[in-house]
Structures are given as structure tokens and as C-alpha cells.
Sequence to fold (720 residues):
Amino acid sequence: MNASRHSRLLAAALAAAALPATAAETNRVAETNRVADLGTVVVEGSALSKYRPETVSSGTFTDVAPESLPMVVDTLTSDFIREHNPTDLHDLLRYVPGIETGGKSLLVRNPGQFSIRGMGGTEPAFDGVAPIGRGPGLFMDTFLFDRVEIAKGPIASLAGGAGAAQNASGAGGSVNMFLKGANLDGDRREFQENTSVGRDTWRQRAMVDANEMNDGETAAARLVATADWYDPPYANGGSQKGADARESYALAPSAIWAPSEDFTLGLKTLFQYTEQPSYIGVPVWRGEPGAGYGWRESSCRPGDRSSYKSFLASPWAEWQATDEWNLRLGFTAMVSEWDQTTREPYTAMPGTPEFQAYCRTGLWPSGEKYMLSGFSESSATLHNYTVYARAVNDRELSDSLRNVLLLQPDYNYRSSTGGFGTPTSRWGATLQDTIEWRWLTVLGGLRYDWFDQESYTSAGRGGVVHYPSMTAEALSPRAGLAIRPIEWLVLFGNASQTRTPMLGLRCEDGSTPDHAWRATQYEGGVRVRPLEKLWLSVSGYRIDQESVPEFGNDGLVLSYDGENRSEGAEVSLSGDITDDWTVLAMYAFNRYTDENAAPGSKARRFERYPENTFSLSTSYRIPGGWLEDVVLGFGWRYRTKSYATMRGAYVDDSLFFDPSSVFDASATVPFSVFGGSRDWMITLGVRNLFDEKYFESARHYYECLVGEPRTFELGLRGTF
Fold:
């Protein structure tokens, strides 16, 4: 893309900034027991970022202070997102220890999904209730988010599983995205532009957020728009050198209308388009790129491209029927299309002489610098629909006794074409009750799901295979306890279980079973408030997964005897140390065990994911002097050694990722420092300050994606 085109697009973005806009959706109805919407802090000058939310909703579907929950919900607020300026959901979630990606490419089996607490297959969802399907998680621009909440532990007992043919979700947690939406907080316009430059890479982003209310202050409309142009490092070396840059655009109009204090209607929509050079990563060998590849190279051709288009519509209505009953009805429809052509790095199956030679030398026996596989070309159209009805009864039974009862029936349907996925319907219902008595909170819940998979035909290695229509059901319970004997101390624990039927699989005898795997978690922890606005949380957990399918080399199910265990501990410190200093520090320890591997073998207990991960983000606002209101930011992400796998299994001691430390620094300087407006500011940043060479994610040992080099960032942000 040439410079003149950039100038025209940037001018268009600036013009769009004059459109009406808002900060975040806030329903003028009940103050409790509704989907939480934390809003966007109105920034005048360089206000101190807020890293800790007042309430979250992903753990219960009702607004609850995070310190009061009997479970862990980590939140990345709109302030955190704006300050760190990640470009997509994957980049954002790397700031949360214990979350791993399986490869940032459309070619992977389940693109756009994540693992939490060592358990894979988590599919992101809108507002905690509408799963987005495979693929969209790769392309969600984070400027669209009001916040992202991560609920830890088996969560299908609240939101339901999705069926293994689509994704074995719910075993480790859930990722919930809350899109910015129109609100009744007042008129507001925001503009942001960032330019990043590094070795063999540059990026330019323009973002507009505008909201305007009607004269009667009963309705509002909001428009959020993003444009992103990116020339990645891997498109400037190797066989992909000379590839065109990435282009990505998003448009998110929304509206809200509150004709009375008790009733509100809302609508969120989202249009996305991305066209980019394909990339599937490089092989790894002893912590570095193997098979002759360098850190900034790709196996793809210059013309290999991936394109993605999607549309989302999400209308909702909320009615405070009585002082005690709050009712909410919502519907989400998402249609996505993708096309991709990718050339993968060459691979040999573990155990072959060729593979063993690679493990010894890091090179293929042919002696060629690159050995390449064939081309992978595919296209898919995905339809995803969710409808839900939520009823919450919040009753004060006495001065010290409160009961919150939630009932939510819902329905999800997803279909696809092009050989990706299985058309599946899911009917479900959640029943949950929370009792608060003085310093004690008790939570209990039960989720029922019934699945109906349509018949379909798949072209496999053995030829065309027909899968008949199937039905299955699952029951997922949960329980939790929180004790708050004094204001600054909370003891909590929970037990939960996720059950998900195994649809879309085939056994050696030709049958199509619906056996359900089970993931059971036990967790306990403590939260302490050392300062007025600062909370420290420490917890330990164990997740046992049973009845996992064991596959043969032909991809057929051999048995359902698979068992594994994930155990660990998490620590977080979030909030304000002073009025001018905020912090979010998180640590995660996770140990994964394959119970089916031989005792004492490396395959039984190995670092499938880094056992120790840590992140630190902090901001300090200078309180006085000629640099008054300048905000300085610092970030650090650390990961210990982990091993590359093949279909999640250990393959060889030479295929590993080295530990990595990535440091970031930033500064926000308001124009008021130079005698100008406090509503406009310059942002300066350095990402990967010490130019660490590291792998950020991986699918298999030969498809490992490299982290970005050091980049310098200059930005402009303002409100008007």
C-alpha cells in the first residue's frame, strides 16, 4: 500500500471522528443482576488507567465485585487495552499468565481458540453467552472491546459446552469479550492513531469512537471504527519476501433506547474485513528456528493470502419487571467467511529415520535449506446463532440475608461449509442460586445441555466418510463458597465439573460414538486487601479430565480411556497503590500430567506449556511540576521453558522453546504540558525493548510462530 493511499485513509478516519460517539453501554434499569458493562472512563488529559474493575459478570451472569466471587475472574479493562495497544485478541491475552494459543493461523485445526490452566479448546464468546466459533478470534481488533473477562476453571456449568466436533470447551475456563456499545452517559468523541516501526516491519492504526445522545436523553447511537495496515517481519525474508502488507478494517455501529426507567432496548453490530499474507510459522530446534529457517522467514509464497469477512448483529431487551425481577432477552447472529492458501514447512512423522535425523542436527537429511510441504487451500462459510432469555430474582429476605436466583434457557446453532466443522444445535438451561448471609456467600448451579448434530459427509484419508445424525446430552454442576470475616479478607473455594459429548468422531469399527469427557476442578484461595484500592489474590487448583478419546495414527478413536491432570497456583495483584500509581501483576504455575503415559517417562509429565508465567503492567502519573499529568508505563512478560508437541503429545527432548522475557515501556504526554488542551495527548512506546527473540505460540513442532522484534511507537489520542 503506497503512502498516498495511507494519507487518504487517515484523512477519512479523521473525518469520521466528527461523527456521534459514546463511551460504553450502560442500561438505565436495575442496578444489580444484569450483564455488567463497566463503561469507558472519561479521560481528561492523562487520567490514571484503571486496571481493576468494580464488577464482573462472567462468573455468574450477574454483577459481582471480583473479590467477592468464589472463583477467579481476571479482567483486562478498557484502560488496560488502550494503554497497551494490542492489535488483536491473541496479543491481548498474552498479558494473562496461564493462557496459551495454538497457533495464530487459519490453517490450524481450531483457529482462534485458547488453552487456560493447561486445558485446551476454549472458544471466545460475546458477553459471556454467545460463542463466536472458529476463526473470528484471530481477527478481533481490541479497540472494539469495552473489556475482556477470563473466567478460570470448568465453566460449562454456567455457559455450556460446545461439543467436541466444534471445540472441547469449558475444561479450563472461558474468554468473554464485551463489545463497546451505545450508552446514555453523554456525548463523546475519541480519535486515536498509532504508527509502529521496527526491523523489517511497520504498522499504522487509526481508530474512531463516537457517541451521541438525543435531546431527550432517552436514546443514543455509537460508532466505533478501526483501520489497520501492517507489514509483518516474516513477509520480508525467506520465500515470502515481497508479499503485500496486511489490511484490516472494522465498523461497529450500535444503538440504545430507554423509553422508561424500567425498560431498555439495544443493538450492537460489527462488520469486519481482513486480507493478509498467510503464515503458519517455522520449525523449532533447541529454542531456535530449525531446518535452515531464520527468525524473520516464512515458508509461504508471496502470493499466499488469507482473507476473512464477518458480520455480527446482537439485539437485546432488558426489563426491570418488579423490584425483584430483572428479565433480559438477547439474540446474536454471526456469519463469517474465510479463504486461505498456505504452504507449510516440511515435516516428518515422529519415529521415522528422517525425523530422528532432524532431532539430532536441526536439519533435514536432504541438505536443502528449506524443505516444503504441499499447498493447503480452503474456504469456509460459518453461521453461528445464539438466543437466550435470562431471569434474575434478587430478593432481600432480611437485613442480613439476600438470595439471587438465576434461570437462563438458551439455544446455539452453528453450521459450516467447505468441510470445516459439523452442523450442530445445542439447547441448554442454567439454574443458579446465590445466598448471602452476613459474611458468608454460598453459590450452587446446574447446567443441562442437549446436542443435535446433523448428518454430514467428510473427505478423510480413507476416502469419503458419512457421519449420521447424532444426539447427546450433558449435565454440569458447580458449587462455591466465599467467607469474608473482615472487610479486607476473603477465603474462597469451588468445585465444578464440565461434561462435553464427543460428537463428530469415528471409531475403528466404523461407529460414531457420543461418549462424554469430564473435567472436574477443585480450587481454594484467599484474597487480601493490603491497601484501600489494591487486592492480592492467591489460589491453588487441580483439574482432572477423564474419558478423553485416544486416537490412532489414522485419526480414528481407539478408546475413551484417556486421562490427564492439570494442577497449579495463581497469584494476582491488581488495583491502585496510590492515587497516581496503578498495577496489574499476575503469576501462574501450571503442571500438566498425561496419566496414560508410562510412569517415569518424559511423555507423562513434561512442560506442555510453560510451568511458570508472569506479567507485570504498571502506570505512574507524575503528580506535579512541569511534567504534571505525564503517565509513564512499564510492562514485563516472562515465560519458562516449554516443549513443542505433535497433536499435543511430547515428541523429542531437542524440540523446545527457550525461556523468554519481553519488556515494554511507554509514556503519555498531554498537550497541557506544552500549554495546550488536556484532552489531546501524544503517546510514545517501545515494545520488546531488548529485542528478545522468542516464539509466541505453536501448533506443532514445525509450525511455531515467532514473536515480534523491537518496535517503536508514536501515537496521537484525543477526545472532543
